Amino acid sequence: MAQMISTMPMVDATPAVSAIMASKLPQSACLDTPASGITVVSRQHVRPDAASAMADLTLSVSDLPMLSCHYIQKGLFFPAPDLPMSSLVSLLVSSLSRALAAVPALAGRLVTLPDDRIVIRCNDAGVDFLHAVAPGLSLDDFLVPDADVPTKLTKDLFPMDRTVSYEGHRRPLTSFQVTVLRDGAVFIGIVANHAVVDGTSFWHFFNTWAAICRGDSPRPLDFRRNFFGDSTAVLRFPRGVGPAVTFDADAPLRERVFHFSADAIREMKAIANRRPGGGVHDAEVYGKMAHDPKNPESRGEISSFQSLCAQIWLAVTRARKRLAPDATTTFRMAVNCRHRLLPAISPAYFGNAIQSAVTTATVSELARHDLRWAAGKLNASLAAYGDCAIRRAAAAWQAKPGCFPLGNPDGSVITMGSSNRFPMYEGNDFGWGRALAVRSGRANKFDGKMSAFPGRAGDGSVDIEVCLPPETMAALLRDAEFMQTARGMLGATWSRDTPRS
Hints:
The chain is 26% helix and 20% strand.
C-alpha cells in the first residue's frame, strides 16, 4: 500500500508541463526548491502491498565492505507519457508497492544484533517516493552533446544525496524520485543501499518494477546468503557511529559520458587480438600469458570490453601529466562473482556478489607499449579471477574485516564500475516507451571513477561515464588518439530526431 505522509497536492504535469511555473505552485507544495530548479511537490511513504514473511538476511562478506559506500544512484530519462501526470504517479506508486512485496529486502532496515552481526530486517518499514517537477528544464539541458554532464542539475534528480550505506539503520534502504521536465519527459531515479545491492541486483529490481508497471510478471529472485558458507566475521562500529566514505567527496571533478560506437570497439578488439610484432617485451609478456598453467583462460580471446578499458587506461595515464615515469598505475575493475564461483551462484542472487580485479603497470610501461599489450594485461588479470581467487579474497577479508577503500589516494588509479551488460534499456519500459538515456548522481565519485553503460541502440556500443579532475579531463579531451575513438555520448545516442519508442 502507499501511505501518504504529506498532504501536499500532486501537480498534474501532463506533456504540456511547460505551462506549470514553480512560482504558481502552492507554497506548501514546494517541499524542496534547490538552485537547479527541480522542485519536490509531493512525498509519499510506500510499503509493500503484502506483508513479508522473510526472515532476517545477514549481510555477507560481499555486503559488509560496502557499508562505507554511498547509496547507488542511477536513473533513466523517458519520453513524455500519454497520460496525466497524477495518473502516472499513482501507477508508479502502486506498481512500486507490488515490486517491494516481491523484493522485501528493499523495504526493510539494517539492524545490528547483540553479537554485532548486521542484518537486513524485512519488516516492511517502507521507502520514500518523491514527485518533482522542473518547469524551467528540458531534456536538452541534461543531454548536451560533446559537453560535460551538468552535475549541478543531475544531483537533484535523486533523493538521499551522498547518504552512506550504514545509515540504512535509520533511513530507508531505497528511495525513488520521478521528475517531470518542461517538455514532458520524465526521469525515474532510484537510490539503493550499496550494502544491500550491487549493480546486478539494482538493475534486476529496476526491471522488476518496470515489468509490474506494464502488467508483466517479474522474475523470481534468490535471497540466500550462504554462497561463501557461514562466516563469523563482523564489522564493529562502537556506539553505532558508522563509517565515513574513504575519499574526498568534495574534490573538484569534471564528468563526461563518452560514446564508443560498435565499429570503434570492434576495431580496438581486432588490434588487441593481433599477434605481437616480435618485440622483445611483447613476446615475453604474451609468452607468459599464453603458457602460464595457472591462467589457462588467458590464452582466450581478449574481449571487446577489455580492449576498450585498455584504451581508456592508456589515455587517462597520458592525461595525468604529474605522474612520474616509475609510478605504478592501477586499473580496478568490478567483477561479478556469480558465474565465476564453483558452483556458480544463481544469476538471480539478490545482494552483493562483486570483488575488484586489480591490474598494475608503471607509467613508463604503458608509454612504451600499445593497446594490445595493455589489453593483454587486463585479460590475464580477469582470466585469473576465478573461483580460487575469489575465495582467497573472501578469506583474506574475513581474517581482517574492513570497509572497501574506494578512492584514488595517489592519483594513479582507475576504478571501472557498473557494466555495459546490465539491462538498463532492455526490460525497463514502464509502459510508455523505451528509455532515452542513463544518468547517475554524485554517489561514489572521485578522480578516476568510471562507469560502463550499454549504448542505447543495443548494437554493442558502450557509453563510459568518466570522472576526472578538471586539468586531467582537459588533457584527455586534447588526446587525439583517444578522441578518435570516443565522442560525446548524446551526439551518438540521442537527439530530437531520435525515435522515442
